[in-house]
């Protein structure tokens, strides 16, 4: 029987709590035991904020994207690879998995390009902001990931990548995850966040949208979809258009939602459909 492929984008408060980290690692082990291949992609916002603060580096955000100086990038890469990635690999291995820690730089898996932040005013005039060492994904080579998955390994990837000249970039974790999900053509792309899904009237639990067609998303930008949710929805939208089966936004602070959805077909979170 052919394995299902799932990419989980992991971040937010679910990364800070050791109890939740353990619960998510156990859920990934459960998926593995049920013939589901998992690729875990992570950022590390809370850890990066702490490390930058400790180094006296001030950063600002533009629609969920962090301005990143060369000095900040050194600090971010050290935190993501040396602290966050390493601890997740360790935790997954303790559950009996064979986790492998990677960044987009490994095996030239992800080729980056510089990202500019472009904003349009009401008259349609564009303003370009230089975000420093912030990148976009230019290209993804999944050969290393496919080799690892076929050999029974669990790839754990953080969102740093280089361009052709060897310049390193910090890439928004949601953008990065969506592009890898697309390139792998996963069956399900799951984005873990700190809320139960997309609320049409936040925080009214009755207003959660269980299913949203891509064609309806436009009217929600700026109201329902704003701030850090923008890159999450953008990445889901792009992934679906590029061949991913389903994209689901669910609550990483409720790890049971992962197995409820993937193993028991329970409706949870918000599923985006074509």
Please, could you describe this protein's structure?
There is one protein chain. This protein is of the alpha/beta class and 274 residues long. It has one domain (4-273): Carbamate kinase. It is 34% helix and 29% strand. It has 7 helices and 14 strands. Strands 5-8-2-1-11-13-14-12 form an 8-stranded mixed β-sheet, sandwiched between helices. A 4-stranded mixed β-sheet has the order 6-7-10-9, with helices on one face. Strand 9 (160-162) and strand 10 (168-171) form a beta hairpin. Helix 1 (18-33) runs parallel beside helix 7, helix 2 crosses helix 3 and helix 5 packs parallel to helix 6 (229-241). The protein is globular. The chain starts with a strand and ends with a strand. 41% of the residues are buried. The mean pLDDT is 94.
What is the assigned CATH homologous superfamily?
Acetylglutamate kinase-like
Task: Return the structural class.
Answer: alpha/beta
Strand content: 25-35%
What is the helix/strand order?
EHEHEEHEEEHEEEHEEHEHE
CATH top-level class = Alpha Beta
Mean pLDDT: 94
Radius of gyration: 18 Å
Strand order, biggest sheet? 5-8-2-1-11-13-14-12
Main sheet specs: 8 strands, mixed
The count of strands amounts to 14
Low-confidence stretches: none
What overall geometry do the principal axes of the alpha carbons give? Answer: globular
Number of helices: 7
The CATH architecture category equals 3-Layer(aba) Sandwich
- Using the coordinates shown, work out and report the CATH topology: Carbamate kinase
**C-alpha end-to-end distance:** 27 Å
Helix content: 25-40%
